[in-house]
Amino acid sequence: MNIARRSILGGLPMAAAGLLGGTARAAEGGMSIALSARAVGTLDPTKTVLGADNWACRQIFDTLVVPQDGTFAITPAEFKPSLAQSWDSSADARTWTFHLRQNVLWQKDQGEMTSEDVAFSFGRLIDPKVVVSNKVLYANIATVEAVDKYTVRFTLNRPDPLFCGSSVYTMSANIVPKRAYTERGDAFGQDPVGSGAYQTEKLELNKGVTLRGFDKHFAGAPVVKQLQVLYVLDTTARTLAFLSGQVDMIEGARTPGWMQSMQSRKPGIKFDATKPGSINTLHLNLTRKPLDDLRVRQAIRCAIDSQSLANAYGAMGAPMWGVSPTDFAGSVSTDSLPPELRYPYDPERAKKLLADAGYPTGVAISAFTSQREDYSAIMLMVQEQLRKANINLNLKIIDHTSMQNDNRRDLNSMAMESSSYPPVPTQALLQQLSSGAVVKSDSTGGGNYSHYGVAMPGVDTLLEKALDEPDFTKRAALCQDVERQVLRDLPDIGLLTLSYVIARNPRIDVGYPVQSGYAYWPLRRAKIVA
Amino acid sequence: MLRTIGQRLADSVPTLLLVVTLVFLALRLLPGDPALVALGENATPDQLDLFRHRMGLDIPLWRQYLVFLKDLATLNFGTSFMNQIPILDLLAASLPYTLALTAAATAVGVALGVPLGVLAATRRGRTADTVARLLALLGFTVPDFYLAALLLIWLALGWGWFPINGLGESLPDQLYHLVLPAVTLGVVKAAFISRLTRSALLDVLGRDYVRTAWAKGAQAGRVIYRHALRNALLPVATGLSVSILSTLSGSVAIELIFGRPGLGSLLIGAIETRDYPVIQADLVVFAVLVVAVNLAMDLLAVAIDPRLRT
Amino acid sequence: MTATAVLLRRPVGTLAAIVLVLLVLVAIFAPALSPYDPLTQSVMQANLAPSAAHWFGTDQFGRDVFSRVLTGTRSSLLLGTISPAIAAIAGCALGILGGYFGGVTDRVVGRAIDLLLCFPELLLGILVSAALGPGFWELVAALGLAFLPRFARIARASTLSVRREPYIEASLSVGCRHALVIWRHVLPNVSGPIMVVLTLWVATAIRLEATLSFLGLGTQAPAPSWGNIIRDGLNNLFGSPWPIISAGIAISVTVLAFNLFGDAVRDLLDVELDE
Question: How far apart are CA C203 and CA B191, in angstroms?
Fold first, then answer.
């Protein structure tokens, strides 16, 4: 099947220019990574919303604790020291004390990192007058205080056995230097000072950031002295730059078949992929006909083949059964479920359920989604699967900002949501399924687009119980109860998880296997091996 | 002369004002919330309100408009909603690339298009004419971004003659990076210019004074270059100004494929994030460029044909 | 001149006309001609090379590229003709109004034309499609508005030259109403140049649709248009190059045909244009 393809593209002397030849421009200095973004937004970790900015920030700043490189810490015991050397919590998991590492230096000669900087950093996150991204992650923190020069104490409103995962190891909670941050003001985003392994050397808004190793980093200087974080929006442009050897790593495209086609193009390419990656779920608006009927929702669940959605993405995709990925604590997997909650793919059963609900000829539903590549591709496949079960989805594809806006105004019947959560069992549930987060037509509501818990009884009581539970194992078990209840009511359908993928030239060795984690990882340990 | 320029500039003020007003209104019709984009989807309502307040989005529209006009009059472009970077910095990081690309593409277009047009006109109806016209048509029929992709795949990825994307460091390197995008846009431009040159030249060649020159036995080359081309320049120059303006704003797809910054890229990005002040500033700069290019062409026209001087 | 004579004297124009007729037929009968439903996906059949079953192969969703290109003819041709046609009608109305009545009307029309001419077509297309959201009719509106001033300018110029003719005054003095004069004398004079410009702008409209689709502002998935086939195809270049090759050729052939046809019409009508 490849013959004809070769005759078009395969005739190119690509290998000569290419990947394994080592003629790469990037080889001259250090290494480079090209990410999908138009221009540098801000390198203030408390304000970034762009994936590419996050990448740079991850190299420049440190958090108090970290998981093992290349993983997510699923349980509290898995966190490792970073700026904090040790930590302990009270029995009720409401008071957390962190003992800081000593002699940690700020970049650009800004002195030593102390508890004052930590208290300042978290103080901003919980100050209602300060705008930071993902503020909701810090809402549980009641106070933060510097006990002495190297000790910081947090008190929480409610117990949180996984405080390190839900608040401390998050992007906005990177520690910033109090003095430099205050002095620089808004300009901090263009001239950041962190304690991380790389510091900014040059920032070109439209091109990217050149980072230089920070020799005085507490864990030692990084192996590769120069790291270029390039901003290249267009997938084709990025792919071509990678194949020509001009850049060492590129952000992959979240389109079906991308990974497979790259693999067949150049077998030598390495892929670093996070599992689970983004969590893609489909909210069914319970206030709209015919979605208010449980049988219709069950029909939709039966008509969607999560496994084949995942297959389309090759190794990037994995099917979902509940609304949390199976890798996370508090999730449910298909074999642990009672048979009536398993919903195997069965379009015929879907048709029967529709007939029972009074729609023997099928239903038509209007919905919109974003033109961002992952949203549109997944929804196009869902649309096609639903069609086989007589569910006609009139799908309008609009730009991403309009979709966000219109979803927030409760204008959608079926809103697909791609989100990335750390493995904190309650977080996604709280933001997408609790009655407190219900969407409102004046856009003052939250991300519960199905009206679950308002249009019908939901999981609020169970969630409250989970949030008051200081024991992690018991908390996870309560979240599984929530999952089962959600599968019974079907306000939200798990579609698939989609790995965040970086394609890597084999001349670079990241230094550890990338298995899971956020959509960015430290490159401090990376080496050039060829 | 100075008075003419002054007059033209004064004339353009109401048009500019209308343009910016239209833009201001159109932006507010766009669905989408800059606050939600800047703060991310997990933002709480309080935070969104706080952000809107800081950015002056919570006051009535007419007051926002007045603030906008005042800022415009005092040349205060403000800062971006997304990252508080001064918009002048954003423009400075984009405008030079747009100007460089437009200049290079125009140079390629003129260098290819004018000789092709002359060839076609002087050999009218013969093979050279047909070939020249077909070449021009071919340049016209291929969408520029498509041509860009083809050139990239063959010349840059396949043969490694050119860099794939980026801007380059030193000046020669930067020029080297400019070649492929400029050639892509230039070829499309050449198609347009050669058509224009051909028809303008044919028109002039048919006029009496040229016929007289022929009859007097002047050499063909001299007739074409001394008399005909000079007079044919006027419509070509007018056409060129249209073409330059469309490249200034319309090379977005090319910028995207070659990973280059530019006014067009800045605009599309700002539209995506609903960064109103950036969109407004970008379009104001563009409108000023329109006025400047048109003025330059008027002056050029006077230089070519002094009778136009009033 | 008889029809045969026209054919013989202008083989290129005739060929272009034949191609255009074929394209229209393809657009009309696309569903019948397509071997597959252009929207049906098959993950197992993704990125196939051309074969007897799939003449142009399949895309990353396993959809048949040949069927998609055929169906794409519809939206490309429809958009390519409707948007300039709307622009021509509205532009003519404005231009004639200004040129015929002169005075304040003309100054308003003139100012409006100047204003719109400030924006090159693509920029206006971007702005309008951004404001209205992506979609077929939104794009028609965007391109229609972008083309309008160019038609208005030509209509106005032609009207101005006709307006000075003595027979217009004569008709008015014998009591003819303005509407009748415009219908009888102005419109026929304006329609020649407009027709020529129309065919040329059809070509531009098809190219712009492709560019706007490439920028994500054009025809929206899953409906195929040549522009979005290329857009999706570029991102899947190494999966299969056939979508961009076939849609690219389709665009080039169509634009070429409209251009050559437009040239032939211009020569036939012997219209002078200072475009």
Answer: 14
Nearest to B274 among A189, A243, A401 (CB): A401
Domain boundaries, chain B: 2-73, 90-308
Comparing A388-392, A497-501, C204-208, which segment has the lowest mean pLDDT?
C204-208
Residue-by-residue DSSP string for C83-108: HHHHHHHHHHHHHHHHHHH-HHHHHH
Any idea which fold A278-498 has? Dipeptide-binding Protein; domain 3 (3.10.105)
Q: CA of C117, closest CA in chain A: separation in Å?
A: 27
ipTM over 0.90: no
Other beta carbons within 10 angstroms of residue A219's beta carbon come to 14
B96, B102, B104, B110: CA torsion to nearest 10: -160
A contact test, residue of B37, B146, B152, B157 with most A CBs within 10 A: B157
Distance in angstroms (rounded) separating the CA atoms of residues C46 and A382: 16
Report the mean per-residue pLDDT for chain A.
88
- Other beta carbons within 10 angstroms of residue A132's beta carbon come to 23
Q: Whole-angstrom Cα distance, residue C226 to residue A483? A: 44
From the candidate CATH numbers 3.40.50.1370, 2.60.40.2230, 3.40.190.10, 3.90.226.10, the one assigned to the domain spanning A2-59+188-273+501-528: 3.40.190.10
* Two domains, one topology: A2-59+188-273+501-528 and A278-498: no
**Which chains reach chain C with 3 or more Cβ–Cβ distances below 8 angstroms?**
A, B
B 118-177: CB under 8 A from A: 149, 152-154, 156-160, 163-167
Amino acid in the structure at residue B74: T
Question: Cα Rg for chain A, rounded, in angstroms?
Answer: 24
Architecture in CATH of B90-308: Orthogonal Bundle (1.10)
Determine the pLDDT at residue B1.
Answer: 63
- Surface of A (177-206) touching B: CB under 8 A: 186, 189-190, 204-206
**pLDDT tens figures, A63-104:** 999 999 999 888 889 999 999 999 999 999 999 999 999 999
Mean pLDDT of chain C: 78
Q: What is the identity of the amino acid at A182?
A: T
Higher pLDDT residue, C229 or A359?
Answer: A359
- Indicate the pLDDT class of residue B220, thresholds 50, 70 and 90: low
More confident residue, A59 or B229: A59
Residue C130: list chain B partners with CB under 8 A: 30, 271
* Domains observed in chain C: 78-269 (1.10.3720.10)
